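Key result, reporting period 2: structure in, sequence out.
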């Protein structure tokens, strides 16, 4: 019987993607207090981003999912400032230049679309600052890369700053019925599907 654990966690806003403490900021330890010591997140999700975080003690799976050549896709719901139209997303679909570690990096082509506000969508705490005269839009963006703050940099590059960022899917695994701060274990079939998506 396998001793590997595969956990899907809905990281709330302003929670660090780590177990170790950093001042008074909330961490994964606040939501997963009894977890085994050798289980760690695969990749990370920024402090001010929300959504799915995958944790496991299976280091071979960790390497497969993180390598961009494996074609592992992550889908984000992104609330941006401004009334975005489909034609505004051509840059995302073709690749845009962003700064990574002080160097120019052209992103790989992304899947991008303007979408209605996702439902049901949990309230963010604290909420997005509302500005009456500036419209907002929701985008769905799917990428296979994972550069630091990549999605935020991509939307800024096309003139639509990110206001709220939620990772809605990792490969074939969707946010589904999870709510912020909750988690569930993946079943063996879901793990197999995840691997099939990453090769």
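The corresponding designed sequence is given below.
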């Amino acid at each position: 019987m396998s001793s590997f654990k595969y956990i899907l966690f809905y990281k709330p806003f302003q929670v660090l993607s780590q177990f170790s403490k950093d001042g008074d900021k909330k961490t994964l330890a606040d939501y997963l207090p009894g977890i085994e010591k050798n289980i760690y997140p695969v990749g990370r999700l920024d402090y001010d981003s929300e959504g799915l975080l995958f944790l496991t003690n299976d280091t071979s799976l960790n390497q497969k999912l993180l390598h961009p050549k494996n074609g592992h896709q992550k889908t984000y719901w992104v609330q941006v400032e401004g009334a975005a139209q489909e034609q505004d997303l051509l840059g995302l679909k073709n690749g845009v230049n962003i700064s990574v570690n002080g160097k120019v990096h052209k992103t790989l082509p992304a899947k991008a679309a303007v979408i209605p506000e996702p439902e049901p969508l949990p309230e963010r705490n604290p909420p997005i600052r509302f500005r009456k005269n500036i419209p907002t839009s929701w985008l769905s963006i799917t990428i296979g890369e994972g550069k630091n703050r990549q999605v935020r940099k991509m939307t800024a590059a096309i003139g639509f700053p990110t206001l709220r960022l939620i990772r809605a899917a990792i490969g074939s695994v969707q946010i589904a019925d999870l709510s912020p701060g909750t988690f569930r274990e993946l079943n063996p079939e879901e793990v197999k599907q995840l691997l099939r998506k990453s090769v």
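Residues 73-170 form a domain with the Alpha-Beta Plaits fold (CATH 3.30.70.1560). The chain has a mean pLDDT of 88. This case is discussed further under Risks and Mitigation.
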